[in-house]
User: Which sequence fits this backbone?
């Protein structure tokens, strides 16, 4: 009997030692998030996740293109666990470069469109949808009688808009790369590059972030900008800025905001919790609370502004856009507009 007790005691000690040495995986108490959306939305997600899971969230807010660069630079020693937000063409590039970890989330079943809103190999999932549009300062329109807001891509080349357009640079903004890719898909590469060259002559200033041009337009720095439609609604509601939103009748592109676990993440269990949670209606209902009005990707989620997606959307080819991204950005920066002195 004593022998049995001694054996059990020794076995118990072994279990304790194994657990202390890492044999029993302890749950993470923190997570590091790479977050391209607006600061308010990143902060809202942080607070909600911390309240639900008791896991401390640290995040860095930077544009999608800057995020991809950061992941490339930290490939051998990743500082982030999950990348949340920003157009998925950058996620497709990251997948091809081995920067992401595949994860078969049980909540993929919640997606409205299983084919469109997730990677076929489970490297990324879609968390929102946003269309491209134009915003025009209504005070500027009042000072220019007879001028109408643009309703097509060719309208942007009209003489009245010369030196009056703001848009982000595609080398730093995922949204602006979607703009460039939309034009190349709509018009074809030869005509598209010619159009982009002509459009550059109309530009007042390029910005670093794709979300900021509506703010500058609303403040009267220029007349028109190209941006995500939900950002225009945000500026109208949040700042009561004199803006009107229009869409190109000849078709507009759109982004699927992505999400992925970073390969080599130091807190993979916490990253999976975030991933699963972000594919729920509970999580996707958070955006409108912080005036982020992208459309949801999961079922049974209220859409704040359904009209933003009830427009003439092109059949945007995300894989093509991803495969040509580096090539197109280098060409744009070399032949059309350098990425110097971008407005922040």
Assistant:
């Amino acid at each position: 009997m004593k022998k049995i007790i001694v054996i059990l005691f020794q076995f118990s000690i072994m279990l304790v030692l194994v657990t202390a040495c890492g044999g029993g995986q302890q749950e993470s108490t923190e997570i590091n998030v790479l977050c391209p959306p607006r600061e308010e939305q990143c902060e809202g997600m942080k607070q909600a996740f911390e309240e639900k899971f008791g896991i401390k969230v640290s995040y860095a807010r930077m544009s999608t293109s800057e995020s991809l660069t950061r992941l490339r630079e930290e490939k051998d020693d990743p500082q982030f666990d999950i990348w949340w937000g920003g157009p998925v063409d950058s996620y497709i590039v990251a997948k091809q470069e081995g920067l992401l970890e595949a994860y078969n989330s049980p909540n993929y079943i919640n997606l409205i469109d299983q084919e469109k809103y997730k990677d076929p190999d489970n490297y990324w999932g879609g968390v929102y949808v946003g269309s491209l549009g134009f915003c025009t300062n209504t005070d500027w329109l009042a000072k220019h009688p007879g001028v109408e807001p643009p309703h097509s891509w060719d309208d942007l080349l009209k003489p009245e808009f010369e030196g009056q357009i703001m848009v982000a640079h595609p080398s730093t903004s995922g949204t602006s790369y979607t703009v460039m890719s939309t034009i190349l898909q709509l018009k074809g590469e030869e005509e598209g590059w010619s159009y982009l060259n002509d459009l550059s002559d109309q530009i007042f200033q390029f910005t670093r972030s794709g979300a900021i041009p509506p703010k500058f337009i609303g403040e009267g720095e220029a007349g028109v900008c190209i941006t995500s439609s939900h950002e225009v609604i945000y500026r109208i509601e949040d700042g009561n800025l004199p803006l009107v939103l229009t869409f190109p009748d000849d078709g507009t592109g759109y982004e699927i905001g992505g999400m992925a676990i970073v390969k080599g993440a130091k807190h993979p269990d916490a990253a999976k919790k975030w991933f699963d949670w972000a594919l729920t209606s509970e999580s996707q209902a958070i955006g409108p609370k912080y005036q982020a009005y992208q459309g949801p990707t999961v079922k049974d989620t209220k859409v704040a502004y359904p009209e933003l997606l009830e427009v003439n959307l092109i059949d945007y080819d995300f894989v093509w856009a991803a495969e040509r991204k580096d090539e197109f950005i280098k060409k744009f920066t070399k032949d059309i507009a350098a990425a110097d002195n971008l407005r922040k």
Observations:
- The longest strand covers residues 125-137.
- The radius of gyration is 23 Å.
- Confidence is low (pLDDT under 50) at residues 1-23.
